Amino acid sequence: MASSDLEDLCSHINTKILTIKKTLQLRNMGQEPSLKSVLCKIGHEMFLANELLNKMEIEVEKQERLKNSLKEMQKCIERDYNEAQHLRENIPPHLPKAVPKCTVGLTVKSEEQSKVTEHAKKPTREPKFIKEAPLITTQEFEDVPAYMRGRLTYDQINGVVQDLNKAVVSKYKILHQPMKSMSFAVRNLYHRFLEEETKDTKGEFFIVEADIKEFTQLKVDKRFHCILNVLRHCQRVREVRGSRLVRYVIC
């Protein structure tokens, strides 16, 4: 074996021995109580340094994406600028001239004045009066004979009064409505209302059984007729008969 090879082998063995000695020293240092706090502090600082490096890496990636976005935006701006420059250099000579602001203002004012004048000319229509039956008072309810009142309650009677008023209002709103604004179904109702008029109901507000069924959920049954007797007694409605119809006139 050559002397150089022997020297290399000795150097390698000595390096290994030195490494083992340092490892043993470090192990012994880790077991010493006085050095444990130092090692823990070093480990904590290494952890913080690792966290900081991770954050820096994320920030670098974010800045890289932002840089790419800015490059794309720059390209778009340059393209728009070139298009605008091209339009500016190639404006056609036959474009219409701008209208002076004062002329526009005068036109707008004249239009507004004409609208105000037209609105002033139109007469305001006042809503036409529709008569309704007042509710029964508690005193009137107490004064109704027991045989007529039976088992009817105060609320039941006034509930029928409200339904009758609802039917009256619905009917006469149609009668007061212009013919041009009526649908086909409403126009049929309008003509029926006119056919049901008689000389005895002229100037009166009345409904028939068909109106009650058309405009309310009220059932025209035995109890309904008992309540009608009470309402006739209290002078809220009266009946006008003729042409096979019973007309309930609001008093």
Automatic annotation (TrEMBL):
Q: Which UniProt keyword terms apply here?
A: Coiled coil
For the biological process aspect of GO, one term held by this record is:
chromosome segregation
Task: Give a Gene Ontology cellular component term annotated to this protein.
Answer: mitotic spindle
Q: Which residues form a coiled coil?
A: 49-90
Entry keyword annotation includes Coiled coil: yes
Provide an example Pfam family for this protein.
SKA1
Could you say which protein family the record assigns here? Answer: Belongs to the SKA1 family.
The protein in question is named SKA complex subunit 1
Q: Which organism is it from?
A: Pelodiscus sinensis (Chinese softshell turtle)
